[in-house]
């Protein structure tokens, strides 16, 4: 079994470092698709331990895979290439159309977007009255729910017309958007707390949060509707009970979460903006 997991990890690196199409799924494998919120290397470090643990608990081999962009990821969701998916609330509302149903969600702090600036920068707050001219704002991806959609909605709600009053740039991932801020490529960045926490302390210490959006439902894990009902229920129970063991707590820490997962139902996501 260890050899199969090593092979899965190598496959992930190959798929993410080239433009080649994904290799076909091996018979019997479950494919765990993770939205490309962060760099492939960081995602692998976060989710491969969880993937291994779930495979052991379900007694079924599992592959952890992701994609090079949000759009590519959702194309694969639309083609039902993944058995299990971890994605944001907005994209889950789309995944429902393709036969995916939520079974668990992150049990952590409220799901919010944040606005971050450099501590030594000139911006201390954002408001229509105090907005400097020519402010550059960075986002990960147009489909990043907390970091982009929720932050843009928040700015609009306080009277800032994002596309008219700010210079908007997209950097492809949470990591890249935060690093762009740190390196002076933008003046403010939209992101979310787990990504900011995942950065090296030397970078975190030079940044500060100046605003936070109202909360939305947390990041869900959903399954394809043709999986056997007993496996879906087993997966749900394993996820919910993850933080109940020392091994599970270590996996939670590697994910960057505070408390693991908790039960979720579809109704929680019905009103999420698409």
Number of strands: 11
- Taken from the alpha-carbon principal axes, the silhouette is globular
Percent range for β-strand residues: 15-25%
The CATH class assignment of the largest domain is Alpha Beta
CATH architectural grouping of the largest domain: 3-Layer(aba) Sandwich
Spatial strand sequence of the major β-sheet: 2-1-3-10-4-11
Give the terminus-to-terminus CA distance. Answer: 40 Å
Helical proportion, percent range: 25-40%
Count up the domains: 2
Number of helices: 11
Helix-strand sequence: HEHEHEHEEEHHEHEHHEEHHE
How confident is the prediction overall: mean pLDDT?
A: 88
Extract low-pLDDT stretches: 1-25
CATH topology assignment of the largest domain: D-Maltodextrin-Binding Protein, domain 2
| CATH fourth-tier homologous superfamily of the largest domain | Periplasmic binding protein-like II
Summarize, please.
The chain is of the alpha/beta class.
Outline the fold blueprint:
Layout: H1 2-16, E1 30-34, H2 40-58, E2 62-65, H3 70-78, E3 84-86, H4 89-95, E4 100-106, E5 114-118, E6 136-139, H5 145-157, H6 162-165, E7 167-170, H7 174-182, E8 188-191, H8 193-198, H9 201-204, E9 207-212, E10 220-224, H10 229-240, H11 246-255, E11 261-263
Parallel strand pairs: 1-2, 1-3, 6-7, 6-8
Antiparallel strand pairs: 3-10, 4-10, 4-11, 5-8, 5-9
Helix pairs in contact: 1-2, 2-11
